[in-house]
Amino acid sequence: MEWKLLPDICAPMPFQMALDEVLFNGHYESLQKNPNCVLPILRFFHSYESWVTVGYTHREEIPNPRRTCRRITGGGRVVHGKDLMFSLVAQKSADVSFGSVRLSYWKIHEAVKYGLELAGVKPRFYRVDENLPRGFDCFTFPIATDLALGLNKVAGGSQKRSRGIFLHQESVRLIPGISSTEFQRGLCAGFQKVFGVNLKPAPIFPSQLKEAQELSQKKYEIKQAVQFGYHSLTTENERVGNSIE
Q1: How many domains in the chain?
Q2: Tens of pLDDT along 57-110?
Q3: 242 within some domain
Q4: pTM
Q5: Does residue 79 belong to any structural domain of this protein?
Q6: Domain contains 150
Q7: What CATH number is given to the structural domain containing 51?
Q8: Which of 73, 132, 199, 206 could pair covalently with 5 via S-S, beta carbons 3.0-4.6 A apart?
């Protein structure tokens, strides 16, 4: 089986979140036209400056709203700038695990764990029998099936699910001494190993970038981040765990 691997993008988080929404909606539209020829989409991205994202249900005051934007997925607060992020968009029928929130989360983290191990580190899963406190800051408050490196959380994710499709957004902390390129190469190998797929390079079309830019300005940028006026984000979402940190 093949998945599409899109070019990695370095851009502010409002644009990245908008692009994920464009890809999510475009996946559904493509399925309506030709349901047998639509492949899962994987993309890696990062921000060249510090940003914070929060889940679509967040209603608490943000200390620095000018660098904060919402995600269309659930969860708590994620600080970006020293992480590598990826998004996966797929039909829930594309893999046996994708129909379940918990199973998909676990299997995706198996791929991340494998990639980290290729980079020379030994992460572990937080267990369901650990006494894990709950809280809004995602890396401070891990949940079972998040990944830990030593005493610290190193990876976590969240999802949006509707119309038979899901979007998984993930944040993986960069590790000193391991380049982002090497890190990404390992994660790609992890997806290929765990899911038994080939990653086929595919373009992001100019029309998708244009739509994402317009959506970013309309829905995700600073003015809306301060006001938190994203009523459309509160429908058809499912919260997974803490967040994408």
Answers
A1: 1
A2: 666 666 555 688 889 898 888 889 899 999 999 999 999 999 999 999 999 999
A3: no
A4: 0.87
A5: yes
A6: yes
A7: 3.30.930.10
A8: 199
